[in-house]
Amino acid sequence: MNAPHTTAVTQSGMPSPQPFGRAELARCERTLLGRGRWPKAALWRVRIGNEDWVVKDFIERGILSRNLFGVFLVRRELRALQRVAGVKGVPAGAFRVDRHALAYRYVPGRPLATIHEDFLPPAIFEALERTLRDVHARGIVHLDIRNCRNVIVNDRNEPVLLDFEAHLDTRGWLASQRARLETFDLAGVYKHWHRAQSASLGPQRLAVLERMNRWRRMWVFRGLWFYPREAGKRLRRLRRRVSSGPGSDAQP
To answer: Which CATH architecture has domain 109-250?
Structure first.
């Protein structure tokens, strides 16, 4: 007998039925999009009820991986996706399938890395910048936009920001700390913009990019999201550095 579906919470705060559960996932049509390195999730495109979804699923990992890292990362990323729900340019409809998997609406498109620069007009990067500023307004910094696989361009030629696994919740941070992290985030957009359409980047954005490139040597988190204790130590170290700042040059 299938377990009953749990409920998700809509943006208005009202409960809504969960679109599908583990039982439907096990028997649906699906395509593997990527199998992350240990201990990351497998990424699937699934079709359920004439609708396409992306599922990040840890169920195939070992017992320790799925019950420790998997549960932690599902809860963590879902919290960020629900916080930014309604922002144009982020995945919609995010919910928890079960404790080992989350899902969101599939967005047809191509990764930024696969698109020739001639087909990347400045308007795409302007839209990505707006999306990121709206995400920041919800108290979230993405922190992995430099990875161009985390940005796709949909069939309407609009950017969509994926993979909030590495995010930070900036609520409770000092305004100066939050501003520097948001600027670091924006520099990821400017990196792609500069490579594709450098003439349209403008001197102010270019200055931010160059400043943040110098600041990147302080960055401490790559590969640490699966080791919360060590990441916590480095987070405290980063906050001390950001508080003092590398001088007036570090101001966004």
So the answer is: Orthogonal Bundle (1.10)
